[in-house]
Every structure is written in C-alpha cells, then in structure tokens.
TrEMBL record:
SUPFAM superfamilies: OMPA-like. This is Outer membrane immunogenic protein. It holds the Pfam family OMP_b-brl. It is found in: Membrane. It comes from Jannaschia helgolandensis. Residues 1-19 form the signal peptide.
C-alpha cells in the first residue's frame, strides 16, 4: 500500500489542482457581428413642407372677355396627414402656392392657388405612388377669384426616416372667375416638394 502511494505521489503533485491551482483559461467565443437594422419607413403621421412648381395657366372667355394663356413659377407651403394601412396609404393635405403669372395680352395675373384635398397611394416601402384630388381656389390680380377642383398624380420617396422628396403633376380647373362672367380659369402645375414628417 505504501509503495502504491509513493508511486502515485509524482502524478498527484503534477496535477494542476494540487500544483498551485494553475488552470488554463477557458476559450473566449469569437465576437458575433450584428448588422444594423434596416430603416423602417412608415408613412403614418403629420408632415409639413415646401414646394415649387411650373404652372401653365389658361383663361377662356366664352363671351369674348378673355382668351389668354400664361406660364411661370409658383412656390408655397404644404401640410398633411397620412395613414399607412400596409400596402395602401390614405391621407389629407392642404397646399398654398403664390406667384405672379401674367396672362398674355391682359393686365391679369394669377396671384395664388389654394388646394384642399386627399390622396390615396401604393406603399412601396421607401416610395409612395399616389393619386390626389379635391377643392381648388385661385385669386387673380384684377378679375377676382374662382373655385373649382384639382386632380393629379404624384410620387414621394423617403430620403431619411423623417424627410421625403416628392414630385407632382396636377390639373386645376378653377371654374368661372367672379370678376369676369363667362371666363374660366385653368392651370396645370408640375413641381417638386420636400417634406418633414413627425
């Protein structure tokens, strides 16, 4: 028995547990790289923005008062609210443009345009394709105002999760000017807008 203990003693002394407690450190797992999450583009919420458009204006007088065209730039502000329903987005908006577009051969100028309406579109994630329509009003320098409707199409794209850039083409039929019986005012606008979303 004593011989067995003496023979096993060198093995016990060489054991890490009895040789000062020296134990190899466990291996550290390799770091795991986690890719940042892709931005989530949600169209739901309020937005405000600015817009600039090219306008082609036409005044048609049915009783010989005015038959004139004009074109030029208008710029203004916009605000609205959208609701993202998945693949469909619905919303309401207000747009106000100002400018001085003279009608050829007259002293009349188109001074401003107000639009209040809605839009419905296809949600393509970062992009939105939509149709828009509603009430439109225009004021002129010397022939009063006119009230009618607008209809158009647009495209909007997120630049960041809070900022979007859009383009619109809108047909405006303002109806008869109240200062010139029988004269209808129309305009087609094509422009760009930038929006901040809350």
């Amino acid at each position: 028995m004593n011989r067995f203990i003496i023979a096993a003693l060198p093995l016990l002394i060489a054991s890490p547990a009895l040789a000062g407690g020296i134990v190899p450190a466990p291996l550290e797992p390799a770091p795991v790289f986690v890719a940042p999450a892709a931005p989530v583009y949600d169209w739901t919420g309020f937005y405000v923005g600015a817009q600039a458009s090219y306008a082609d204006v036409e005044a048609d007088g049915t009783i010989g008062t005015i038959n004139a065209d004009g074109n030029g730039g208008v710029y203004g502000l916009r605000a609205g609210y959208d609701l993202d329903l998945g693949s469909t987005v619905v919303g309401g908006l207000v747009q106000y443009d100002t400018g001085s577009i003279g009608l050829d051969g007259t002293t009349t100028e188109l001074d401003n345009i107000l639009r209040v309406g809605g839009r419905v579109g296809f949600d393509a994630g970062r992009s939105l394709y939509y149709a828009t329509a509603g009430y439109a009003s225009a004021d002129t320098s010397d022939l009063g105002s006119a009230d009618g409707y607008f209809a158009g199409v647009g495209y909007e794209m997120f630049l960041t999760p809070a900022v979007s850039l859009g383009a619109e083409a809108i047909y405006n039929d303002f109806g008869e000017l109240d200062g010139s019986a029988g004269t209808d005012l129309k305009a087609t606008t094509v422009g760009l807008n930038v929006n901040y979303r809350f």
